[in-house]
Amino acid sequence: MTEFEILVALGANEPFNDLPNVRIENLVPQPERTEARFDARFDLRFGGAKVEVYAEIKNTCTPKQVEQIAPWLSRFKATQKDAVFALVCPALSPQSQKLCLDRDVDFIDLAGNVYINVPGKLLLQRVGMAARKEAGPSFYRNPFSGKSSRILRVLLQKPMESKPGGMRPVDVFLVNRPMIDKPRSWTLSQITEELAAESRRVQCPGISFEVSSSLASRVLRSLEEELLVMRKDLSVLVPDPRRLLLRWAQEYKGRYRWYLRRSFKISNPFGANLESVQQDLDRLLRPQCCYAFTGAAAASKAAPLVDVDPIDLYISDETGAQNLRASISGASIGPDLRVIYPFDAGVFLYSSRRGETRMVSDIQAYLDLFARGGRELKQADYLLEQRIEPNWRSG
Question: Do 363 and 238 reside in the same domain of the chain?
């Protein structure tokens, strides 16, 4: 969306069409100011109050862009109480809105999200309005979906480097806890090489986890714009892996609903424990396709009191999943099996055998449990605190 189109939308009062008491008046493009040149000036009328607004217009407003411009706008706000200096965008993501609120940066987007705060005179705040059209940088690639999410799996598998034996000042009361030295840095080539190595290790028939360097580069840049990774020279690192995982889990819930629409349940004539189910699934599915237990079944190894009903499993080949359904016969003697055919093979990344059973990674099990909600959400929290975060700390 061009700056001219944004100005036209402002002139038409588009952000506030559903708020009859709020009006944009006297819009002037590129007003003259001695301190700085802003893109537009207008009066914002809210009921009986009116404030002068100077607008800095941006085509996109990622969290990184907000972080960069916030100090500049804050300086004007702190020194000139008679006017508003606002960031104006086609759409502000919830993350960008929160960052603006945390930094006390006034903003307006064309979806109707707004924060204008003039102490003692006017406070106008509305957030949570969905954008009519997604707006992002030209390079932006959704890092939470499809092949792009494979980059996240690499970054979150071992995001920290540690040196056992040392203690930081904050650890003096934490006995036998290894020192977390620093976040692990990854270069682009190391990430693509890791995906190639995992393809060889997991050995799913017909599946490769590899992605192009171009895709990986766009994903990493998108994560950087969201302030979820940091760039250090030619590498990137994850400063807060828990925050990244929780953000991914929130985004994943919508995709998981699509997974469930493609899933089906079948009776279980194999037995009540996972080992007996595994033996028969090996006989019926391998070597034609790959499968792995997920959800509560995968978490049961770390949390023995988890109620595994139904037993969730991913199957890599849709034909194999349908053949399994057709081959089931006999009375059910265990929890139902829920068969899920994934949109992306990345769900099998870092899967492994634990004892006699093949499980998805702890990260994938966490995502599925989180998406299910309810009692599974408590299981997800337990898995994060008792297995995933300890693994991060151990490096």
Answer: no
Tokens of 13: 């009062």
Please give the structure tokens belonging to residue 322: 């349908």
Which range of residues forms the domain containing residue 241?
146-249
How much is the average pLDDT of 12-41?
A: 85
DSSP for 251-295, written as a single string: HHHHHHHHHHHT-EEE---S-SSHHHHHHHHHHHHTTTS-EEEEH
Last residue of a domain, one of 229, 249, 269: 249
Q: What is the pLDDT of residues 125-170, one digit of tens each?
A: 999 888 766 556 666 789 998 999 999 999 999 898 755 544 443 3
Together in a domain, 231 and 311: no
Alpha-helical runs (H) found in the chain: 3-11, 63-79, 94-103, 149-157, 188-202, 213-225, 241-261, 274-285, 295-299, 318-327, 362-372, 375-383, 389-394
Asked if 364 contacts 294 with a C-beta cutoff of 8 angstroms, the reply is: yes
Q: Select the more confidently predicted residue: 106 or 317.
A: 106
Residues 263 and 243 in one domain: no
Q: What is the pLDDT of residues 331-379, one digit of tens each?
A: 888 899 999 988 899 999 999 887 778 899 999 999 999 998 888 898 8
* Three-state secondary structure call for residue 183: strand
C-alpha triplet 191, 218, 348: angle, nearest 5°: 45
Place of tokens 């828990």: 242
Do residue 37 and residue 92 come from a single domain? yes
In the chain, the number of structural domains is 3
Task: Fill in the amino acid letter for 381.
Answer: D
Contacts of 275 (CB under 8 A, 6+ apart): 355, 356, 357
Residue 250 has which token pair?
A: 């929130």
* Nearest residue to 294 via CA among 235, 339, 261: 339
Among 299, 279, 276, 268, residue whose Cα is nearest residue 363: 299
In a domain, 137, yes or no: no
Q: What is the mean pLDDT of the chain?
A: 87
- Give the helix/strand (H/E) hosting 235: strand 235-237
What is the distance between the alpha carbons of residues 368 and 17, in angstroms, rounded to a whole number? 40
Cβ-contact 238, 159 below 8 angstroms: yes
Q: Which of 249, 280, 305 marks a domain boundary?
A: 249
Residue 140 within any structural domain of the chain: no
The helix or strand, by DSSP H or E, that contains position 313, with its residue range, turns out to be strand 311-315
